[in-house]
Amino acid sequence: MALMADWLTTVRQTLPRIGLMVRHMRPSLEFPDVTSIDQALLESLGIEAVIWDVDGTLMPRHGREVAEPFREAFRGALAAPGMRHLILSNADEARYRELGSMFPEIPVVRAYTTPRGVVGRTLLKGEDSWDTAATLESRLSDARALRKPSVALIEIALGQLGHPPRNSVLMVGDQYMTDIAGANLAGIRSLKVSTHAPASFPVPVRVLQYLERVCYRIFHAARPESPMG
């Protein structure tokens, strides 16, 4: 049930804005995988901060480490001088906390709608910005997680990164409708990679991924490439 609720939440959040999402699903740049991302590329584009998707981008769904073919490129990107990094994921609570353990030196960010408005949450170096377990339980009781695509979620991420110029921020992800459309709507750059280990995703998610690829081919594939501007 948790799995079904997870992907259904994304669908319910996206459906009312499906036309808007389709219009904004064209990436600034597209590569087969993250091995094409290196310091030279980031410098040439004037990138100061990278927002990463994880499942399907750096590893199979719910993997426990960056996939071996991508490790060197990922480490190289992290080592770029002055570059800031952040992880955004549509994962559930358990996976979110697991990502915090896997990437202790990178902020892992979520955002929630609450009666007090949209609030962010960050895991970094073993610390949860929502403090104690009692506080976490209390906050989660009246909070609804925002999921990509969400401009508000990107805004929370930009705040965590120190509000760099938007054209200096790059979102890297494997999904046109969530990662790419969300980034484009927020005015940051977007880089699309092919989904790694697609068979690791459940059938409903793979069906949605297929449908978004069909939408992309219909509405965008025949058009000229968009510049990275």
What's the arrangement of secondary structure elements?
Blueprint: H1 2-14, H2 18-23, E1 29-31, H3 39-44, E2 49-52, H4 71-78, E3 84-88, H5 93-102, E4 108-114, E5 117-124, E6 127-128, H6 133-141, E7 144-145, H7 151-160, E8 169-173, H8 176-186, E9 189-193, H9 203-219
Parallel strand pairs: 1-9, 2-3, 2-8, 3-4, 8-9
Antiparallel strand pairs: 4-5, 4-7, 5-6
Helix pairs in contact: 7-8
Instruction: Write down the Rg.
Output: 17 Å
Range of strand content: 15-25%
| Helical residues, percent | 25-40%
How many helix segments?
A: 9
Uncertain runs: none
Q: What kind of sheet is the major sheet?
A: 9 strands, mixed
Query: Helices and strands: which structural class?
Result: alpha/beta
- E-strand count: 9
Order of helices and strands: HHEHEHEHEEEHEHEHEH
Give the mean pLDDT.
89
Gap between N and C termini, in Å? Answer: 42 Å
- Sum up the overall morphology in one term: globular
In words, what does this structure look like?
The chain is α/β, with parallel strands linked by helices and 229 residues long. The chain is built from 9 helices and 9 strands. The chain has helices at residues 2-14, 18-23, 39-44, 71-78, 93-102, 133-141, 151-160, 176-186, 203-219; strands at 29-31, 49-52, 84-88, 108-114, 117-124, 127-128, 144-145, 169-173, 189-193. Strands 1, 2, 3, 4, 5, 6, 7, 8 and 9 form a 9-stranded mixed beta sheet that branches. The longest helix has 17 residues, at 203-219. The chain starts with a helix and ends in a 10-residue tail after the last helix. The mean pLDDT is 89.
